Amino acid sequence: MGRIIAIANQKGGVGKTTTAINLAFALAQPERKILLVDLDPQANSSSGLLAPDDLRAARQQKLTAYEVLLADADPQRVFCKARESLYLLPSGPDLVGAEVELASAARREYRLSDLLARSRDDFSLILIDTPPSLGLLTLNALVAADAVIVPMQCEYYALEGLSALLDTLKRVRQALNPRLAIQGVVLTMYDARNRLSHEIAREVAKFLPSELFETVIPRNVRLSESPSHGLTALEYDPRSAGAEAYRELAAELLARVAGTSHAILETPPPDGGESGPGPRKWGLRALFARSGERARKRAGG
Ligand SMILES: Nc1ncnc2c1ncn2[C@@H]1O[C@H](COP(=O)(O)OP(=O)(O)O)[C@@H](O)[C@H]1O
Ligand SMILES: [Mg+2]
Q: Whose CA is closest to atom 10 on ligand 1?
């Protein structure tokens, strides 16, 4: 039965969609079928993954998240094959109206959950990209999900936003979905040369030592260029720092889901090496060590 993971943060522009499409692609394997559900009316995941013609065709046939949530379309008919082993439930602008229409619908918080209950056996993992708000669409994602991944931009007010989101998760757990867990917080747009990026990372690591992913996503221009080509960064430039980091995040996520990973920073892995398979270039510990070296050089030590 596929684990359902919502990618959520009520702030816009923090890297939800970038994480959704690159993580989904990195996870997809012949033995691991992945579904990405695009619940954002802005449809950035859909246009970042599908060619314009394919997306137009899907919408013309009325096969989008809107029909599934509000018109009881058969989910088997609406999943587009985006890549080998990677399927997409696309979004469209009509989802804006869904927020209002859902308000008076029966089981309005459970529409997506009911739908995915019928499809989760067909996938190893289901990721849900959500809009930058805590309205009914995001609520549907949080009610359907087993866990949440929170992308967090390394910037000044990030921690305040994080507390608000943690509050919301607590309330959703109490009222609607007691099994909702935090799969992890992932730092995005990390700039190794920027002291603030650094300080935020340390703060979050102190605040949520076991939730923070060891993998950090660097600021990388390939990640912002690739969607306009309908490609993930892993296809557009597989050797780019962004692609590497998302491959590492996928490996770390799989280890967490399998229950084999350890809390970061607090507990070193048993063998004293880095966690996960292969050397970790985008691990927090490695990044901190490198920046420490740079600072010592600057200080003439
Ligand atoms: N690690 C990154 N490096 C560079 N640009 C990024 C990175 N992550 C996201 N972006 C860019 O920042 C903008 C916002 O990212 P996006 O993933 O769309 O955020 P959200 O879905 O949370 O609104 C987009 O233009 C995206 O291409
Ligand atoms: Mg988005």
A: 224
- What ligand has the least distance to the C-alpha of 131? 2
Ligand 1: residue whose CA is nearest its atom 17: 15
Ligand lying closest to the C-alpha of residue 38:
2
Q: For 22-81, what is each residue's pLDDT tens digit?
A: 999 999 999 999 999 999 999 999 999 998 998 898 888 877 888 888 887 777 778 899
pLDDT category, 118, cuts 50, 70, 90? Answer: confident
Q: Pairing mode, if any, of strands 86-89 and 3-7?
A: unpaired
Q: Which helix (H) or strand (E) holds 173?
A: helix 158-175
- Do 191 and 197 contact (CB within 8 A), yes or no? yes
Q: Closest residue (by CA) to atom 27 of ligand 1? A: 224
Query: What domains does the chain contain, in order, with CATH numbers?
Result: 3-298 (3.40.50.300)
Confidence of residue 260 (pLDDT cuts 50, 70, 90): low
- The position carrying tokens 């309005």 is 108
Please report the beta strands in 10-66, taking only residues with DSSP state E, as ranges in sequence order. Answer: 34-38
Name the least confident of 150-154, 205-209, 225-229, 286-290.
286-290
Sign of the C-alpha dihedral, residues 82, 222, 157, 298? positive
Point out the ligand 1 atom lying closest to the alpha carbon of residue 218. Answer: 1
- What is the C-alpha separation between 59 and 7, in angstroms, rounded? 23
